[in-house]
Amino acid sequence: MADAQEDDRALEERLKSALWYATGKAVDEETMRLGINATPQFIGSLSELVWAQIENVAHDLETFANHAGRRTIGVEDVMLLTRRNEGLETLLGQHRDAIAVRFADEKAGKKRKRDSAATTATSAGKAGGKAAEKAAAGTGKAKGRPKKGT
Questions:
Q1: pTM of the predicted model over 0.70
Q2: For residue range 52-83, what is the model confidence (pLDDT) as tens digits?
């Protein structure tokens, strides 16, 4: 039990460090573009603010999924979370719709390939079916077994 808690704490620290690093890089890029400076304290404060926001979002998403009787967070939970931010809701809605269209296209493409392969196999089977029947009759084989008495 203590090992699991230590592992969780260590993971959280690694994630916070990665967030701090990513925040620092983003702040450095912006400060260079704008020609201003940012202190390490600002980067630390911004990282803590972002971490707190991530924790709040994660808690809300878990709550939405649990309320719906699910253990897995879904797209509908994320969309529910964005309901008060019209710009984000619009952007994520467009992204969700684009993914749905792409998924439908891929599914239709797989079906076309499957139908095409089945048509090709059926055509080949009809063309080669008579020859295969004659060959099987001539060798006396049915389903790969020799006839009795041969």
A1: no
A2: 999 999 999 999 999 999 999 999 999 999 99
